[in-house]
Amino acid sequence: MERISKWKKKYINLKFKYMKSGRKKAELLKESKAFYMFGNNNEWYPSKVPSNPELLSFHNNVIVAAHVYFCTHDLTFKMLNRAENTKNYQIYLGTIEVFDNVFIGANSTIMYNVKIGPNAIVAAGSVVTKDVPEGKIVAGNPAKVIGTVADFKNKRLIYQKKVDMSLTDSEIIEKLWS
């Protein structure tokens, strides 16, 4: 896989400034072939293309919230080379793969050599340093399993029964505070 040119990346980032829709951003990313793989029915809310997008792979039905950082490299080689006054150490690169039906919450960081999902949720603000098992929810720094997607779905259904979803937004808010 070829690296995306810096000009193509700049062009995509410029177009992102005028796009609000996560689905439209995802369509642009898919058309540009910036990533190693980018499946169908995805949504992308970050405002930039990550560095080294060719090391990222997204399957189908993936939603990435705003300000998610995908770290595909490690710059410690610079510190090591300077400390030893050598050029023995090279940049370390790793891949990230996100499987089907995954949600990655806002302000999360996904580190290199990680696989997420399928059917997983990464809670907002998490730092994912290890693989996320299928059907699990992870949270924290470093991210740890805090539950299952099946339990989460059940809680959402209970909430919807508790709050009549045909109410207006202000009526729902009033009911939640009562």
Structural features, described:
This protein has about 180 residues and is α/β, with parallel strands linked by helices. The model has no long low-confidence stretch (mean pLDDT about 90). About 30% of the residues lie in helices and about 20% in strands. A hairpin with a 4-residue loop joins strand 14 and strand 15. The chain has helices at about 5-15, 20-30, 75-85, 150-160, 170-175, and strands at about 35-40, 45, 55-60, 60-65, 70, 75, 90-95, 95-100, 100-105, 110, 115, 120, 125-130, 135-140, 145-150. The chain is globular and about 65 Å long. A 6-stranded mixed sheet has the order 2-4-9-12-14-15. A 4-stranded parallel sheet has the order 1-3-8-11.
Task: Write down the overall mean pLDDT.
Answer: 90
- Summarize the main sheet: 6 strands, mixed
Q: How do the helices and strands follow one another from N- to C-terminus?
A: HHEEEEEEHEEEEEEEEEHH
| Rg for CA atoms | 19 Å
In DSSP terms, counting alpha (H) and pi (I) runs of 4 or more, how many helices? Answer: 5
Helix content: 25-40%
Proportion in β-strands: 15-25%
Distance between termini?
A: 56 Å
Low-confidence stretches: none
Oligomer: single chain
Outline: globular
Within the largest sheet, what's the order of strands? 2-4-9-12-14-15
Number of DSSP-assigned strands: 15
Classification by helices and strands: alpha/beta
